[in-house]
Amino acid sequence: MGALLSLKGVGKSYWRGDTEVRVLRDVTLDVQAGELTAVWGTRGSGKSTLLKLAARLETPDSGSVCFNGVDLASLTESQHARMLLEWIAWVRRMGPKSDLRMLDYVALPLLAEHGRRDAYARAKEAIERVGLSAQVRQRWGSLCDGERALIGIAHGIARAPRLLLVDDPTANLDVSERERVTELLHSLVDEQAIAVLMAVPDMPAAMRADQIFSLGGGRLGSASMPPAPPPAELERGKVIHLRGRQRLV
Amino acid sequence: MKVALCQPHNLPRLVELVYGQELICLGRVQELKHTFERMRPPAPNRWSGLVLVHIRDAELSFWEARLTWLQGVRASLEGMHLEYERATSQQIQAAPAVSRQIHAARSRVG
Prior knowledge:
Chain A is of the alpha/beta class.
């Protein structure tokens, strides 16, 4: 079975003044349906850029991003918008700007596509799925960080997407809240066979993932990737000859 | 030691060594994940479950810190390598033709 999301040789750079910052270099990543994939990296390592590229919210400088076998670069704007509406959901850390009830907030993106009754039924179901039935009438300001993270996920899954992109879902959460959120993502993947690509800045949040990658210095590393064999002369503190001189390395 | 005594032209190889170490750390993280999955309690919010999570997190923080450090070292080495390449190319452009030939011959030998 082919990967649902496939990044091949993706490169992305930004300019910071005169300096080119290569955020992603030759990144290759496959995300399968029914799989939770975590990308760990420190702040500024390019995790969010990777997620944006996966949804074509940014375009890569090199390489290709395919969703369900379709190269995202080949989509027209309307096809892309359709894809974001139906198949790919972005779990936001920010809540609604206005003082909406949580039920309204989750139902809002569904109203255009489904009728009012159906939209609210789906929103309620999504909120129940994340275990916050008691909070449907509450407003964003009255929720704790853990509940906000869960509402963000409910907002994402309400449209029944095939791919969920989650940026730092466990920020500011304590240990039990973090475990609750990661457990929920894991069970969603199992039950609904969706794919989740999650960016996390702390390793414990990645522990429930099926695949764990690290991102740093533009390179995406996986434990399943064998490291390149170290050059023999640098391997174990050998004396090597460099242009007639000896160096201990 | 390898970092301290290496020469500029060793940098690409050293970068690969550091990256290899990063992957090894990531492998340890995977091992930890599998170990704790096997002993994972059904309810992580209960005391016994939470204690295990704390133990796992303590182990993880070690590898996470090491990974972060290695990534920093690699970024620094790559920066130094770029700097070296830039400086070398400037030298070559500024040098007279004979020196350029010598440099090219040395590069072929080295």
